[in-house]
Amino acid sequence: MQLSDIDAANNLVSLFLARADVLGNRPFLWTKGDGTWKSLSWAEAARQVCTMAESLRELGLNRGDRVVLVSENRPEWCVADLAIMAAGCVTVPTYITNTERDHLHILDNSGARAVIVSSGKLAEPLLPAMMRSGIAEHLIAMEPLRHSQECSFTWHDWNKMAAGDHAAARAAVESRMSEVGRGDMACIIYTSGTGGAPRGVPQHHGAILSNVGGATAVLHEDFGPGDEVFLSFLPLSHAYEHTGGQFLPIGLGAQIYYSEGLEKLASNIAEVRPTIMIVVPRLFEVLRSRIMKQIEKEGRIASFLMDRALTIKGKRRLRDLPMDFILDRTLRPRIRQRFGGRIKALVSGGAPLNPDVGNFFTAMGMTLLQGYGQTEAGPVISCNRPSAGLKMDTVGPPLPGVEVKIAEDGEILCRGELVMHGYWHNRPQTEAALIDGWLHTGDIGHIDEAGRIVITDRKKDMIVNDKGDNIAPQKIEGMLTLQPEIAQAMVAGDRRPYIVGLLVPDAEWALEWAQANDERFDLAELQNLPAFRAVIRTAVDRVNQDLSVIEKVRQFVFADEAFSVANEQLTPSMKIRRHKIREHYGDRLDALYRN
Prior knowledge:
The protein contains 22 helices and 25 strands. By secondary structure, the chain is α/β, with parallel strands linked by helices. The protein has 3 domains: about 200 residues, ANL, N-terminal domain (Rossmann fold, 3-Layer(aba) Sandwich); about 160 residues, ANL, N-terminal domain (Rossmann fold, 3-Layer(aba) Sandwich); about 130 residues, ANL, C-terminal domain (GMP Synthetase, Chain A, domain 3, 2-Layer Sandwich), CATH 3.30.300. Helix 2 packs antiparallel against helix 3, helix 3 crosses helix 4 and helix 9 packs across helix 10. It starts with a helix and ends with a helix.
C-alpha cells in the first residue's frame, strides 16, 4: 500500500473504501467462533459499512450527530465505527467496563442521538443511563436483546439490508464523503481519566490520518512494506488501539485478528502469528516475569544464557560475537516462538515503559518500539525505532509532520495536524491545553542529542517534598514492580519529609512463598505475618539501593486488593488512578508519617 494514498486521503472512510477496492475478497477482519477463525473480506466489510451508513441516515441521523458505540473488540466494532463516519456522524466509543454513571456522563456530555451496543450484558448498565439521560433516540444491537430491551434494529436486520442495492448505498456514501475533509470531526474519545471525570477529546480525520501516515512511514523505513497481521486485544475505545490497532492496519492494508481476551492471549498469539502487536507496558512486565521464571526453572544452562543475553543487550561488540551467535541459535528463537515466530515489532504505548523491561526484550532478540503520545494528539507523538537508534530510556523522535519543543519549565509541547482542535464543550481546559497552536502535554522531559524525546514524569504527578525537591513517582513505581515480589505499587510523599509506598504483592510469588513456608495461602492473612512483610521489605530495600536519598521508600503498607479497572483504581490502559487510590488509602498512607 502506498504512503501517498494515506497522505492524500480526505477522510478515514475514503481511505478504507480505497483499500477495500484494491484488496477485494482478501481477508480483512478475523474472529474466532466454535474453535475456528473466520474472516470478513474487505469487499464484504465495505458493503456492510455503506449499507449500515444509509440505515443510520434513514433513522434521521444527520451530519455531526454523535453515536455511542459500546462493544468488545470484534469485526462489528470496526464496521460500526466506519458506518457511523460514513453516515457523516461522529463515533463516541465507550469502555465495556463503564458503569451506569460513566455512561450517563458520556451520553449527557456528547449529546448522542443513537447508541450501538453489542450484547444484553453490556446493555444492562447502559439502558438505565439512556433512560435517565433521555437524549439518545435509537438503540441498535449487534446481538438480540431481551424483549424488554427495545432496539431500533439489530445487526441481523442490517445484514439483510446489505444484500440489497449496495451500488446505491456506495454512491450515497461517496457523495457524502466528498464533502468531509481532514479537519472534520471523526470521533470523540473520552479519556479514561487518571484524575477527575472523563473529558471528551474530538479527533478530526486528519489527526488520525496523520498518525497512520507517520507510523506507516516509520514501519516502511525500518521493516519494509509487507503483508502485515495485527492481533487486537487492547480496548478499541482507547485512542491508542483505535488508531494503532484499527486505522493503522487499514492504512497498511493489513489483516486484523480479534483476540478472545487476555486469558487466551498466549494461545491466540501462537495461532495468529502476528507481525505487529500493539501492547501496553503492564503486559510486557507480566510476560518478562513469566519468561524469567520459566527459564530459571529450566536449570543452570538456560539461566546462564539469559544472563549473558542481558549482559550483551544487542551491543554487538567484537568480543561478544561468539556468545551472540550461540544465543541466536538457542535462547532467542525460543522466545520469539512464544510470539508466533514472525513478529517484526512489539509496539509499547499507553503508559511509560520501564527501560529494564525494554532492554530485556531487546536482549531476547525482540524488536520493541516504545511510542509516546496522548489522546489529544491522535494519539501518537513519537516512536522509538531502529533507524533512530533504539534507546529504551527514550520514546524516540517525533513522527513525520510532528513538531516538538520543550518549554522553559521542562514541559513537552507538540504541534501539527495530529493535535485536537479543542476539548468537547470545555473551553477553560481547551485554553489551558492549547496555547498559540501548541499542545501542552503535561509531561516533563527533554530532547537528547539524537533528537529523541526523553520523558521524566507527568507534570501534575510530580511529588514535591517538604524541602521543595521534585521527585518522579513513576520511576520509583516502575522499579518496585520489576521485583518478583511486587505486582503493583503507588508511592506518595507530596509536601512530606520522605516517600512512602502502597504495595500489592505478586499473587503467584506469594503462593510459592506460602507453600515453601508451610503457610496457608490467603493474601490478606499473609500480609499480617512479620516474615512475609520482611521479605517484601527486602525487595523494597533492593530498589532503594539504586535510588537517591530523597527517592528512597522509607515505609510501606499493603493494599487490600489489586488495583483494577473494576475498583476504578486503574484506567482501561492500565495506568494507576492516583486520586482514586488516595481516596481509599489516604489515611493509611498518612499514618506512615506518624509511626
